[in-house]
Amino acid sequence: MKKIIQTPNAPAPIGPYNQAVLSGNTLYTSGQIAINPETGELQLGSIQEETQLVMENMKAVLKAADMTFENVVKTSIFISDMNNFAEINKVYGSYFNEDTAPARETVEVANLPKFVNVEISMIAVK
To answer: What is the C-alpha R_g of the chain?
Structure first.
C-alpha cells in the first residue's frame, strides 16, 4: 500500500508526480531543486545557497513523513558541473552524521529541470 506525502513546506509538484511516496516503511522522494516553497519561484544564488535550499526542501519532505536525515539510506545527486562537487558536498554533508551517512551516487548531467545546478532525491526507511 502506498501513501502520498505532501507538505506546503516544500515546492509543490509541477507535473504528474508527488513530493514523496511512502510504501510500507520506505519513503521514495522526488528530486528537489532550488525552488522557494513559499513563492514557487526558482531561487538561484551561489552553488552553496542553491544546495542548502534543496536540502531544506528535502528536510521538509522527510519531516512530513515523520522522518529525518537519519532515516535516509540512499541519495542520488545530479549536478550540471562536476567542478561544483566539492561545494555541493560540503553543504550536503552538513545535514548528515558522517558515521551513519547514506549510500550515495553523484552524477554529472547535461541539463536539469529549469536549468538548475543541482537536484537531489532520497530513499529513507523508518
So the answer is: 14
pLDDT at 14 over 90: no
Give the residues across from 72 on adjacent strands: 124
Residue pair 42/17 in contact by the 8 Å Cβ criterion: no
Model pTM score = 0.95
Spatial contact of 117 and 84, defined as CB atoms under 8 Å apart = yes
Out of 3.30.70.260, 3.40.50.300, 3.40.50.10330, 3.30.1330.40, which CATH number does the structure's domain 2-125 have?
3.30.1330.40
Identity of the residue numbered 47: I
CB 79 within 8 A of CB 118: yes
| Cα distance between residue 121 and residue 58, in whole Å | 8
Q: Is the pLDDT of residue 8 over 90?
A: yes
17 pLDDT exceeds 90?
yes
